[in-house]
Structures are given as structure tokens and as C-alpha cells.
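In response to reviewer comment 3 from the previous cycle, which asked for concrete evidence that the modeling workflow produces usable outputs, we include below a single protein chain processed end to end. The sequence was submitted unchanged, and the resulting C-alpha cells are shown without manual editing.
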Amino acid sequence: MRGEKRIEEGIFIIGGPDITSPDDAAVFIMECGNELVMIDSGAGRSYETLLGNIERLFLDPYRISTLILTHCHIDHIGSAPFFRDRFGCTLVCHELDAGAIESGDPVATAASWYDTEFPPTPLDRKLTGDGGILKYGDEEIHWVHTPGHTPGSISLYIDRRGKRILFGQDIHGPFLSSFRSDIGQWRRSMATLLDLNADILCEGHFGIYRSKKSVESYIRGYLRTY
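The workflow returned the following C-alpha cells.
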């Protein structure tokens, strides 16, 4: 395990296949003024390791105001109940994936794939529409509805120190009827992400891409595949 690492000023990856557990999608945390915002939470078995990685960054987990869930799959939402119960953070997800999370549906959350369960978990805020801005003090995190992998998949970006950092979880799919995937929607979503012209891409399972050229190449590679 390589442990947490810095992506950009005040933005860190604290979990993922090479950091916490092979079951975990990437987990990120960022400083936004006096608040901390988490993006996704792993599959649920490594919550203590995630917490330790936060503390090793000398960040106070009680400053976590918000946990944004990019979609409803267990490898992204598993530790959400722990962080909300322990630290009182607000859980945020798009309304089109909210039903799977709030019901704990074992198929729609893919919990059955991971031989685990996800408890029905109420969300504190459901995003609606095609996109918007989440404000934390003077900071703005933009969210974009990017359906395809699931109906309620979202991507996020923040502009910091002249760089645009894009959190495009699970750009690669997979695309299954049990996930209510839609390749046509996904292709339109990828066009939207390309238009953002991001400097850094933080992908859900396959690493950090650190130039406009490599971000574009990564996305276009999957467009050619599908």
C-alpha cells in the first residue's frame, strides 16, 4: 500500500486499489476553506484506513462537511454510512442514483458483485438537472451530470492555482443492463468532459492523468473502444 498522496494544493487521494483495498474505487479529499470535502468513500471495508490516511495528512476529519457520491456503486459508496454517522457530514448524490442508495438495492449498488451488503442509507441532498455549483466558503466545486455508466453518474471539477482538476469516476464503464447503463448517453457525457479541457483527470480506478493531452487521450481511447 502506497498511502495517501497530494494531487494539487489541498487536494489528495486517500483511497483506491493501490492505497487502501483492491475493492475500493479512488477516494479523494480536498480542503475548501475551513471545510473538507470528500469524493466517494470506497467499498466499505477500509473505512479505518481511510480515516488513518486523512489523519496522516494532519487533517481533522471532523471538518468533513460533505461527502459527494459520484454514483451508486458499492466501491464508491461503501463507507458513506460510517463517515456520516461518525462525523456528521452531508451525503450528496444525483437524484437518478438516489433510489439504489436509499433502498440498499444489492443489484443496482453492485453490492452483490462484491459479496457484501449496503444498508439502506438516506441522502441529505439530491442533485437535480444537468449540473451546478457547490459552494464552500470562497471555493466552488462544479458538478456535471454525466450519465451512461449509471443514470445518475456525475463528474466534478475545481479550478485551483490555474489548473482545472476533473474527477471523472468510472469513465471506463463497465456498461451493463443491471446498472441501467446507456452507451449513447455515455458518449455524450464524454463529449461534455472533453469540452472542459481539464489539466488533470482523477479517474476512479486507473490513476491520475496530468496534462491536457493525456486527459484527452484517456477519454478518447475509451470512445474508440465503445
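The chain has six helices and 13 strands. We consider this sufficient to address the reviewer's concern, and the full set will be provided in the supplementary archive.
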